[in-house]
Amino acid sequence: MGIGAVVRKARAVSSARxxxxxxxxxxxxxxxxxxxxxxxxxxxxxxxxxxxxxxxxSKMGQWERAIEDCTAALNxxxxxxxxxxxxxxxxxxxxxxxxxxxxxxxxxxxKFPPVAWHQSSHQMSSLAV
Length: 129
What we know:
It is built from 7 helices and no strands.
C-alpha cells in the first residue's frame, strides 16, 4: 500500500469517526451507526469505530449486535475497557440474571481511580469517542 493510499484510508476513517460522533451527539443513532460502519469498511480492525458503533447499537436497543461489535473489538484489543463496559451492559440487558462472566473478573482487576470510575459509570450514555 502506497503512502497516498494510507493517507486516503486515514482520512476516510477520521472523517467517518468524526461524522459518526457528531450524529451520535445529535441522537441520530442509526445514521451514526452507518457512519462508523463506513469507517470500518476502510479499517475493519479499528477498535474505536467498533466500540462507537456498539454504543450506537446499544442506544437503539440492538443489544446482540452491540455485543458482537464489542467482542470483535476485544478480540483485537483485549484490554479495551470501553468494549468491556459496553459488552457487560449489553449482556445485562439480554440476560439480566447472567452477567458477562468473561469481562467481569478483568473489570474487577482494573484499578480505576475513584473519580474515573464515577465518571465512566455516569457517562455510559455518551460513550462515542
